[in-house]
Write a structure and sequence with these properties.
The complex is a heterodimer.
Chain A lengths: L1 H16 L12 E5 H6 L8 H4 L3 E5 L5 E5 L11 E4 L2 E3 L2 E2 L2 E2 L11 E7 L4 E2 L2 E2 L4 E6 L5 E13 L18 E14 L2 E12 L4 H10 L7 E14 L2 E18 L4 E21 L2 E16 L10 E16 L2 E15 L8 E16 L2 E12 L3 E13 L3 E12 L1 H4 L2 H6 L4 H4 L4 E3 L6 E13 L3 E19 L3 E3 L4 E3 L2 E21 L4 E15 L1 H7 L5 E12 L2 E10 L2 E2 L6 H4 L7 E2 L2 E12 L4 E8 L6 E2 L6 E2 L2 E11 L2
Parallel strand pairs in A: 4-11, 25-30
Antiparallel strand pairs in A: 1-8, 2-3, 4-5, 6-7, 8-11, 9-10, 12-13, 12-40, 13-14, 14-15, 15-16, 16-17, 17-18, 18-19, 19-20, 20-21, 21-22, 22-23, 23-24, 24-26, 26-27, 27-30, 28-29, 30-31, 31-32, 32-33, 33-36, 34-35, 36-37, 37-40, 38-39
Chain B lengths: L5 H17 L13 E11 L9 E3 L2 E9 L4 E13 L7 E15 L5 E15 L9 E18 L2 E12 L5 E15 L2 H7 L1
Antiparallel strand pairs in B: 1-3, 1-9, 2-4, 3-4, 4-5, 5-6, 6-7, 7-8, 8-9
Classes of the chains: A mainly beta, B mainly beta.
Chain lengths: 651, 199
């Protein structure tokens, strides 16, 4: 606590000293992917964003639900990343899993996606675990409708050999998705409605084997349907937006702590309003008020597993921002109430948190910019402080140096995960045969993070070199060692929660973007990340993140109506220590190491009929090396996706 | 990184280099995209022997294709139909339809001959004919191949074709076919309605 106070004092002094001249800068470690880029890349799901978000790592068991983390964090210890849709935070995190594909937004709706990878305050949220903010398009005047259809297939079917001695199991198609959007704009009023639905099929033989029995030998299938409706009213000095969204998702939910997939039903409903207006000259007031309800309920299964989990989050925030020639200041206040409903008797079933935050943008001298933010969060159990300081120094006209340093203090209550609710009496794991032990009491964790970047921008060439460092203290980590159950092809492990774990990671990144001419461009990204030090369990968990990652992209777009894109991705090997015994137990069927992979993807997009109709073909993994993202996850071969998109407008 | 199949990396790099070379300014196509069309009908014979032929005997395939000038090179769309009669008892006959898109480049040779070389990719559909397969009578898989064709002008817009195609179907046990074919074709301006749609 003493440290926190000292940090706050230093922060306030720095803030006051720097109010000389101000200007808001783009946040550090913020990247933008446009909707056109996503569509042009042949992607069909929101989770495909992670294929373009170089600074993030993502893994999947089934190809539909992705676990993702920004650089420096690991899959098993993370404050969950936040998903925002048009300024409203949508709570998709259920018991530690955030599946972005549950978000009721269609690909055609996306204008651009902001990806924030390092600590920052974005729309009142301290982005400690990263943030993905999806901005949807403003409708064109009049009425517009669009329909998108895509189908994905993985190669390796038995084909005509099916009924011969060379026959193998049938590989279902990977997915089929349909989405429909209707948009209307009349002056300053925008209306949009959308719905998307899809069927996704596990095609991997081991995943199918593992899930056959628990799924009562029914056809393995994940289905989703997700409608949304939005109305926006804008004027010169005010904006108000109402969003209503829902999704129903039947899933084979991989619950890591239980060691396997469990058939479940997810339901999510979100209702929210946000807006802003000018109060007096140069002072704007923003407000956000929203409610998200999530349910994780039973789907028929042979083990009669039922999470029986319902959670809802009610958030109210108000923010004032004032910008004059010498500074820009944002101050905000928020209250959040998180409630849980389950059949278990909980010691407490709700959490109320209040927060106060401020961000100041200043300019000390002509070419030196500063951005500082501080959040103080208070719940009934704990107070926490999180802050960051970012600087940018423009050296000559084409070079810039950026730095960002942050500190965050994160109490157990903010993790709001399975362990917090187990502590309050949600005994799902224990009741289903998983032994859980804690080796001590859990205190607030602390993280210090630093990023330094050098950027240069010539006419057709931009280069960014950066390094980052993260120092974690007082983490609690799950220690597991999975054992194979040959009867069901599943895995089991008791869990020990080991407290007081410390560690450090660091990394280097390089990104080069070059345009040959108006038609062709290419980019190269490389990242090196390694563990600098720490406790053994910390190291084991961070070894899941590959040391080397690289991506090369080549884009050929001779005209606006046609493009082809080549993506070559390298992912280094990684080690998943909790699966260390499974290789011997399964006779090499599974392995605790994920081997390095090189994948080549190719996408083509062509518009027809004056941009009313678009066709897209995407080949994933052309080199056809078996890709596995998780030791017990599906292995993907060469796959191909076809999309048809029709867009009609009344004007 | 060195262990990840140096051969595959070399193949990838070569492929990318070829794409780059083909799209270099010296190789610009003379016609505007979709300005003209070429339609051709070919009869193709399966010319190779492998494990596939222990199960099926393939009848001559019929191939119908249209070809347009593209932003770079030429683009093709077409389908090839063949009947595959079983040569082993208990194995089903089937009809295969390969629906494909192709892209490639045409070189002008002496005597107004034109030599097209390109790649094709598409969907290989398997349609069973026997009653016991009804309900599961349609399967499909990705197919890809290379295609080469020499067009010999006959009179005004008509030409005759000699072609060769190597095709790989990405079933679990890959199907490799080599075809040689002969056919006729016709060159024309693209109808205005179609050009407007495609552009």
């Amino acid at each position: 606590m003493k440290n926190n106070k000292l940090l706050m004092i230093i922060f306030l002094i720095l803030t006051l000293c720097s109010i000389i001249r101000t200007e808001e800068r783009n946040s550090l470690n913020r990247s933008v992917i446009t909707g056109d880029e996503l569509r042009e890349s042949g992607f069909s799901l929101l989770s495909d964003i992670f294929m373009l978000a170089s600074e993030w790592d993502a893994v999947t068991i089934d190809g539909f639900t992705w676990q993702a983390v920004p650089h420096g964090l690991s899959y098993d210890w993370q404050p969950q990343w936040t998903v925002m849709l048009d300024g409203q935070s949508i709570d998709l995190n259920v018991l530690g899993t955030t599946n972005i594909n549950r978000l009721p937004v269609t690909l055609n709706q996306i204008d651009y996606v902001e990806i924030i990878s390092s600590p920052h305050i974005h729309e009142g949220i301290f982005t400690y675990g990263g943030l993905i903010h999806i901005h949807t398009i403003k409708p064109n005047p009049g009425l517009s409708v669009s329909y998108r259809f895509n189908i994905g297939n993985e190669t390796g079917d038995p084909g005509p050999y099916k009924r011969t001695e060379l026959g193998t199991i049938n590989i279902d198609r990977l997915a089929e998705n349909h989405s429909f959007d209707i948009l209307y704009r009349n002056g300053s009023i925008y209306l949009s409605g959308s719905i998307w639905g899809g069927w996704h099929f596990p095609t991997d033989k081991y995943v199918r084997k593992r899930n056959g029995i628990i799924n009562n030998n029914n056809r393995l299938l994940m289905t989703i349907i997700a409608p949304s409706f939005k109305i926006t009213r804008e004027s010169d000095n005010s904006m108000i937006e109402f969003l209503q969204a829902a999704s129903w998702f039947e899933d084979l939910f991989f619950f890591k702590q239980y060691g396997r997939e469990i058939p479940v039903k997810f339901f999510m409903a979100h209702s929210g309003i946000n807006g802003s207006f000018t109060a007096i000259n140069n002072t704007h007031i923003g407000y956000r008020f929203y409610f998200t309800d999530n349910e994780l309920t039973k789907k028929e299964n042979s083990q009669d597993l039922d999470f029986g989990w319902k959670q809802n989050r009610l958030t109210a925030e108000i923010e004032a921002s004032r910008s004059v020639s010498i500074y820009k200041l944002k101050l905000g206040l928020g209250v959040e109430r998180f409630s849980v409903s389950t059949d278990y008797e909980l010691a407490r079933s709700n959490l109320t948190t209040g927060k106060l935050y401020g961000v100041i943008y200043t300019r000390l001298a002509d070419k030196i910019y500063h951005e500082m933010g501080l959040t103080i969060q208070r719940s009934s159990e704990h107070t926490s402080v999180k802050g960051y300081i970012g600087n940018r120094w423009d050296v000559f006209s084409i070079n810039a140096i950026e730095t960002c340093f942050s500190y965050s203090n994160r109490p157990f209550v903010e993790d709001n995960n399975i362990w917090y609710w187990s502590d309050k009496g949600y005994n799902f794991l224990e009741d289903n045969g998983i032994d859980v032990t804690f080796d001590g009491s859990i205190d607030a964790s602390k993280t210090f993070a630093g990023d330094i970047s050098w950027l240069t921008d010539f006419n057709n060439l931009s280069i960014q070199l950066s390094s980052y460092f993260k120092y974690f203290r007082n983490l609690y980590l799950e220690d597991q060692c999975f054992q194979f159950n040959p009867d069901e092809y599943s895995f089991y492990s008791p869990i020990e929660i080991v407290t007081d774990q410390n560690g450090k990671v660091g990394g280097l990144q390089a990104s080069i973007k070059h345009k040959f001419n108006q038609m062709t461009s290419h980019s190269l990204y490389y990242r090196f990340q390694d563990i600098i030090g720490g406790d053994e369990l910390f190291k084991n968990i961070w070894r899941k993140i590959p040391i080397h990652q690289a991506r090369y992209t080549f884009l050929y777009r001779p005209v606006n109506d046609f493009s082809s894109k080549v993506m070559l991705t390298y992912r280094g090997s990684s080690e998943w220590n909790e699966y260390r015994d499974i290789s011997n137990q399964t006779g090499g069927m599974y392995n605790s190491s994920l081997k390095e992979i090189l994948t080549l993807d190719l996408a083509f997009q062509k518009w027809f009929w004056h941009r009313k109709l678009c066709g897209n073909i995407f080949f994933r993994n052309i080199l056809n090396d078996e890709i596995r993202h998780h030791p017990i996850g599906a292995a993907f071969d060469l796959s191909w996706f076809v999309q048809i998109n029709m867009m009609l407008n009344s004007k | 990184m060195r262990n990840v199949g140096l051969k595959k990396m070399t193949a990838t790099a070569t492929g990318l280099l070829l794409i780059f070379l083909f799209s270099s300014p010296q190789a610009k196509n003379s016609s505007a995209p979709f300005e003209t069309l070429k339609i051709s009908l070919n009869m193709a014979m399966n010319a190779n022997k492998n494990i596939f032929h222990e199960y099926w005997d393939q009848s001559p395939a019929v191939d119908l294709m249209v070809e347009f000038p593209f932003y770079t090179g030429l683009i093709q769309a077409g389908f090839q139909v063949a009947h595959n009669s079983s040569v082993k008892s208990g194995v089903a006959d089937y009809t295969s339809i390969f629906l494909y898109l192709g892209w490639g480049w045409e070189f002008v040779l002496p005597y107004r001959l034109k030599w097209y070389n390109g790649v094709q990719v598409g969907n290989y559909q398997i349609i069973y004919e026997q009653e016991e397969y009804i309900g599961h009578n349609l399967e499909s898989e990705l197919g890809a191949g290379i295609y080469s064709c020499i067009a010999i002008p006959v009179r005004s817009n008509w030409f005759t074709n000699i072609s060769a195609r190597c095709q790989k179907i990405y079933t679990h046990h890959r199907i490799h076919h080599t075809f040689v074919g002969i056919g006729i074709g016709y060159n024309s301006d693209t109808p205005r309605w179609l050009k407007r749609f495609l552009q």
